[in-house]
Write a structure and sequence with these properties.
The protein is 62% helix and 5% strand. By secondary structure, the chain is mainly alpha-helical.
Length: 634
């Protein structure tokens, strides 16, 4: 039997892995891919590829690496994400969300540290996908996401101030916000008015161009206008110009493609960047799945989150091999892809090829782009990213959520994104536990049973609580955060009843601490000569208590489906007449252990909350099926 179960488990696991690693591209082609579809993907990929050019360069420079590394990332990671991902429309590449964490890693460990962190993050993402963590990633608390996203936007905008103003300083640009503000404030006397003019022109184009058309991205037009303006007026001339800084003055964009090679990775470096790598993986997972959800909403399709994580992981493993940086799904580029008629992941492949051709043919012209124009583009990215509407709405949420958002925001800006996510998630979890324990209740309901509406008996006599019987009702999840509250109330019971009924119709779940509390209460009742009865137990608590052996100690005949059955069981124990309360009620399913009991005081519908259709019961039946077949063959 164990061998059969083991083989089935392995077979199911391998089947799940095969489903996970099957890319959406394969499914799209299998559904039928026409020449018309390819034409649509070709046009959208061309436009998105052009849009991605300035963004890839801007994100790379803002992250503290060369512009060519942003292009390598957009090409390699963008291609792989479309090739192996689980969304039809996802466009991958470097994004603003990574700027803060990448800049910090490069400042502290150099590019070797970033390459190690990116590779490690890719491995994490592959594991997330194969382990089917796609749904779990979505459980990152919303206030945490709003908080650190707004914080990232502030850091991005702050980091572009020197490029926009043309500031010059000898000191190294610090990674933390406070250090940046101090350095920029002491360097304001070096402001270049011509850089400011170029930046303002580019920013104006970014803002007002979409009012003319959305087919061609405003950021691209802003870059072109600013570059032409600087070149025509000669403001970038190092001798007779006005000192407007361009990409070429700081970096060189090669006209070739890098030879793949393994980065300089060591075990020591892996240990140092383990935590930042995990942050990159979590951030990449959140951003990519959020982008995929946005695409689903725009197209009425459904992505496969685990496949998407797998594709993102492989892309981040390959990116540092080609001198790239971390990559994830880009919401703005994905939305542009959809608006321009994309129908499959082929558009993402085209976008990567277009970027490659642009880099090989027009790379030298990209060096003419003014840094102030890139700063303007990133200002717009930061504004769109900050989600100010979401922040404003959050202040109408419960105070605990507002607290989590503000903590995540300030930790991102002042300390570090990694710390912000860790503390934010932990704080959100603690506050959620407190909130759940606050709503948990336990009270005596012996005198209120007649007014009960949910399980109203047709015979009012059935709701009369016999002398010597106490009824307490539990409400809320019976978990470790609420157990002490339940214990305190139960310990305040001054009298020693002959029978104690715990009504659990409002307890939807129970954990180990809750099971332990029930067991302690059962042992106390045995010592005091009190019979404990459980009433209205839901499916999850029944299964949990059964597996823990508590129901066996209690006696399955003492776990009843509703309060009427529990009161009749109490009457039987006390030697009182049984009251029929079930004649007009609709029968409901029972679990097998309840069916086997032949007790006149249990109505047919006694365990209305527990059906044989629960996942646990179904699983047990499926596991027993091969054994039955073997026995039948014998």
């Amino acid at each position: 039997m164990q061998n059969i179960h083991a083989k089935d488990s392995v077979k199911n696991y391998l089947s799940g892995v095969a489903t996970t690693i099957t890319p959406e591209l394969y499914r799209s082609v299998k559904r039928g891919y026409t020449k018309k579809n390819f034409t649509s993907d070709l046009m959208s990929g061309l436009i998105v590829g052009i849009l991605a050019l300035p963004l890839a360069i801007a994100f790379a420079i803002a992250s503290g690496v060369g512009p060519e590394q942003g292009l390598y990332t957009a090409i390699i990671a963008g291609f792989v994400i479309s090739l192996l991902g689980g969304s039809r429309f996802q466009i991958g590449g470097p994004t603003g969300a990574f700027i803060v964490i990448v800049y910090g890693i490069v400042s502290q460990y150099g590019y070797d540290g970033l390459a190690s962190a990116t590779l490690l993050a890719g491995i994490f993402l592959v594991i997330f996908g194969l382990a089917k963590f796609g749904a779990i990633i979505k459980f990152i608390p919303y206030p945490v996401t709003v908080g650190f996203t707004a914080g990232i936007a502030i850091i991005i905008a702050l980091g572009q101030v020197p490029n926009f103003l043309g500031l010059r300083f000898l000191a190294k640009d610090p990674a933390d916000a406070v250090g940046k503000i101090k350095l920029y404030a002491t360097s304001l006397d070096t402001t270049n008015i011509y850089s400011v003019i170029v930046g303002l022109v580019a920013l104006a184009v970014c803002i007002f161009w979409p009012k003319i058309t959305t087919k061609v991205p405003g950021s691209l037009i802003a870059i072109i206008v600013a570059t032409v303006l600087v070149k025509v007026l000669g403001w970038d001339d190092p001798v007779n110009g006005h000192g407007v800084m361009t990409i070429g003055m700081k970096n060189h964009i090669p006209s070739g493609f890098p030879v793949p090679h393994l980065p300089n990775i060591s075990l020591e470096m892996m240990q140092k960047v383990f935590q930042p790598a995990l942050t990159i993986a979590m951030l990449g997972a959140i951003e990519s799945l959020l982008s995929a959800v946005v695409a689903d909403g725009m197209t009425s399709t459904k992505h496969r989150s685990n496949t998407e994580l797998f594709g993102q992981g492989v892309a981040n493993i390959l990116s540092p091999i080609f001198c790239g940086i971390p990559a994830t799904g880009a919401i703005a580029r994905t939305a542009t892809n959809i608006r321009n008629g994309a129908v499959s992941p082929v558009s993402g492949l085209v976008h990567a090829v277009v970027l490659l051709l642009i880099m090989l043919v027009l790379g030298k012209y990209a060096e003419m782009i003014p840094m102030a124009a890139l700063a303007a583009v990133l200002f717009q990215v930061a504004f769109n990213m900050c989600g100010y509407r979401s922040v404003i709405k959050m202040f109408k949420a419960p105070k605990s959520d507002v607290t989590v958002m503000l903590v995540a925001f300030f930790l991102t800006v002042v300390i570090d994104l990694t710390v912000a996510i860790e503390v934010g998630v932990l704080l959100a979890a603690v506050l959620f536990i407190k909130r759940m324990s606050d709503v948990a209740e336990v009270e005596s309901v012996s005198s209120a049973l007649k007014q009960d509406d949910e399980e109203a008996a047709h015979n009012e006599l059935a709701r009369q609580v016999p002398k010597g019987v106490l009824v307490y009702e539990l409400a809320g999840s019976l978990f470790f955060g609420a157990v002490d509250k339940f214990k305190e109330t139960m310990n305040r019971i001054s009298e020693t009843p002959k029978i104690l009924i715990l009504r659990m119709r409002s307890v939807s779940s129970i954990d180990a601490a809750g099971i332990n509390m029930i067991e302690d209460l059962l042992n106390r009742c045995k010592r005091e000569g009190t019979q404990l009865l459980l009433s209205g137990v839901h499916a999850q608590p029944v299964v949990a208590l059964t597996r823990a052996g508590v129901l066996k100690q209690l006696g399955e005949e003492n776990a009843l489906g509703n309060i009427d059955a529990a009161l009749n069981r109490a009457r039987e124990i006390l030697g009182l007449p049984i009251v029929d309360a079930s004649s007009e009620m609709t029968p409901a399913p029972n679990v097998s252990w309840e069916k086997s009991l032949d007790k006149p005081w249990i109505p047919e519908e006694s365990n209305a909350a527990v059906a044989e259709g629960t996942p646990e019961v179904i699983t047990e039946k499926m596991m027993d099926e091969p054994v039955r077949k073997i026995e039948e063959e014998k």
